[in-house]
Write a structure and sequence with these properties.
The complex is a heterodimer of chains A (111) and B (301).
Chain A (H helix, E strand, L loop, with lengths): L4 E12 L2 E3 L3 E2 L5 E8 L9 E7 L6 E8 L7 E7 L4 E7 L6 E10 L1
Antiparallel strand pairs in A: 1-9, 2-8, 3-8, 4-7, 4-9, 5-6, 5-8
Chain B lengths: L9 H11 L12 E7 L8 E2 L13 H4 L5 E3 L2 E2 L3 E2 L8 E5 L7 E9 L5 E12 L11 E11 L8 E4 L1 E8 L2 E9 L6 E3 L5 E3 L8 E8 L14 E8 L4 E7 L2 E3 L7 E4 L7 E10 L5 E12 L2
Antiparallel strand pairs in B: 1-21, 2-7, 3-6, 4-5, 6-21, 7-20, 8-16, 8-21, 9-10, 9-11, 9-20, 10-19, 11-12, 12-15, 13-14, 16-17, 17-18
Chain lengths: 111, 301
């Protein structure tokens, strides 16, 4: 049997401001995750700093260690590649006051 | 179960014997043709998120659909007791709402039919609010349910799009309800974009639900938010008459002879549509989860 592979869209056309996170996604079956963040509109203000967070329960979160700049222009991409993440994954971003970005986040998971 | 009033049919007896001896399928009562048997320990099995219609920009998507996100494969992992696991195997399909009162999420499987026949939809499901408080939380989840989205074949003399909807209304506005409901009405269609090609309506809105006569039922919720029990569902719908013919939840069999569906004129691009969906909604600012262990969709030959 072929190994499982799945694309999950966890955030679609949401405008993020301040401190924002994607909804928790369970992917304990997957050995690796490639996460793309695409700006759907021209971001306003300084580029956000993003990071991957992991969790033991989907409610308490800690930085996984992977950090990246959010896309700085419409239709640009940011990417995070992670493994050894346990079960729960999400993306967090911290934006400066007045900054905002409208994004699409997809998780590409493989067993 | 064999009907003793019918003459003995060796082919049917053999089919039933094979079903009863097949792990996984033995807990279902399918019609002769297995259309789909989805055990989510084998993957997503074609159940995806219900994305809303749009044109030119995602901003045109109705808010009800904009909140939807992808389902997950879950081991029902809990902070206090670890992975609960599915009814069979490790994984169940999980549909999660956002933590906002009234938030909903939907997963859908999209098929078409070769021939209009009776369809039987069976599943084992369980539901819970997120265990974010050390409380029972039994009034936090508003409802879970299922729907079909069907349309006649193109050659039908009076084609319709027909959408049977059922939900178990657990609580509403903090008040316990514990009853099954159905829908015959829906919110109006909205034109999407300006090319006159795309329309949308949020048929899962909180309006237009009616109590199913005799539809009160108390399900097994268990004693804390992280203990779950699997519940059997069966819904029979005749795609020939476009009427429901049976509904069962665990030991209860409900009369659906007076139940109708959301109906509308056929749409130009949905011929023979045979869609199935599950949904969940929260009644508080806490996530609500619906887990589906397995689904069996069967029909006539």
């Amino acid at each position: 049997m072929l190994s499982e592979s799945h694309t999950a869209v966890v955030t679609r056309n949401e405008t993020w401001r301040g401190q924002a996170t994607s909804e928790a996604y369970e992917a304990g079956w997957a050995r690796e995750a490639v996460i793309f963040i695409r700006a759907l509109k021209t971001p306003i203000g300084p580029t956000a700093r993003g990071q991957v967070e992991i969790s033991p329960d989907g409610m308490h979160w800690v930085a996984e260690g992977t950090a990246f700049d959010f896309p700085g222009a419409k239709n640009n991409l940011a990417v995070a590649r992670v493994c050894h993440f346990g079960n729960w994954l999400r993306i967090r971003a911290d934006l400066e006051e007045g900054a905002e970005t409208t994004i699409l986040i997809s998780m590409h998971l493989k067993a | 179960m064999t009907d003793p009033s019918l003459p003995y049919d060796p082919a049917d007896a053999l089919r039933r014997a094979i079903l009863l001896a097949t792990p996984g399928l033995s807990r279902f009562d399918p019609l002769p043709r297995l259309v789909a048997y989805d055990d989510f320990s084998n993957g997503y099995c074609g159940w995806s998120q219900l994305v809303g219609n749009y044109e030119d920009t995602l901003d045109t998507m109705l808010p009800g659909y904009a909140q939807h996100s992808s389902p997950m494969l879950s081991t029902l992992s809990h902070w206090d007791a670890g992975s609960h696991g599915a009814m069979s195997g490790s994984y169940a399909l999980k549909i999660a709402s956002q933590p906002k009162r009234g938030a909903q999420n939907v997963t859908i499987k999209r098929l078409t039919f070769r021939k209009p026949t009776p369809i039987r939809f069976e599943a084992y499901v369980t539901y819970k609010p997120e265990a974010s408080a050390l409380k029972l939380g039994d009034e936090d989840l508003r409802s879970f349910g299922f729907l079909f989205d069907l349309q006649h074949e193109h050659t039908h003399p009076s084609p319709e799009r027909v959408m049977p909807h059922f939900r178990f209304l657990n609580a509403h506005g903090g008040k316990r309800r514990e009853c099954w409901q159905f829908k015959q009405g829906s919110t109006a269609f909205v034109e999407i974009g300006d090319e006159n090609k795309t329309r949308s309506h949020y048929h899962l809105a909180d309006e237009d639900w009616q109590d199913l006569p005799g539809g009160s039922q108390t399900l097994c919720y268990n004693e804390i938010p992280t203990k779950v029990n699997w519940t059997y569902l069966r819904f029979d719908f005749d795609v020939v008459s476009m009427r429901p013919t049976g509904f069962q939840c665990n030991d209860r069999v409900f009369d659906v002879s007076d139940v109708d569906s959301i109906r509308m004129p056929a749409m130009h691009n949905l011929w023979n549509m045979l869609n199935f969906a599950f949904f969940v909604e929260t009644d508080t600012d806490k996530r609500a989860f619906l887990y589906v262990d397995s689904v069996c969709i069967s029909g006539g030959l």
